[in-house]
Every structure is written in C-alpha cells, then in structure tokens.
C-alpha cells in the first residue's frame, strides 16, 4: 500500500507545477473549506476558498505561522463585507 504524501511534500510538488498535487491538496482541505464556507455564510465562499488555497500554496513559507495568519486575515476581511 502506498503511503499518503505529507502536505509539505505535496506543496513542493505543486510549486514544481505537478497538477495532480494541486488536486490532492484541494481534496485534503475540502472538509475545512466546507466548514469555513458555512462560517462566512456567502454563496461563493466554497469556490473562493478553493481558489485561495490554490494561490496560497504558491505563497507558502515553511516553518512560519504564515498559513494561519493569512487565513485569519481572509476570514476577517470577508466578515466585514
């Protein structure tokens, strides 16, 4: 049985333009995307979050709190609209 790649490995593959890795990252985050889509409560939240994830992967900086900080900023900005 093949092991599931770590998220860090998938992100490296995404940055190397491996399309299957992008799909795998999005697939892994779908449960969270659905949860947070309900939290922000607007119609396009799910698709906007998927796009955000795809863009965010390219901006990711390992060994930082970047992801949490940027996601929090995303939700704060959406709640004020």
Describe it.
This protein has 4 helices and no strands. It is an all-alpha fold and 81 residues long. The protein has one domain (7-79). The longest helix has 22 residues, at 19-40. It starts with 6 loop residues before the first helix and ends with a helix.
Q: What is the global morphology?
A: globular
Largest sheet data: none
Q: What's the mean pLDDT score? A: 81
Radius of gyration: 13 Å
Distance between the termini: 47 Å
Strand percentage lies at under 5%
Count of alpha/pi helices: 4
Order of helices and strands: HHHH
Number of domains: 1
Poorly predicted ranges = none
Give a quick precis of the structure.
It is built from four helices and no strands.
Observed structural traits:
81 residues; mainly alpha; 74% helix; 0% strand
Topology:
Layout: H1 7-15, H2 19-40, H3 45-59, H4 66-79
Helix pairs in contact: 1-2, 2-3
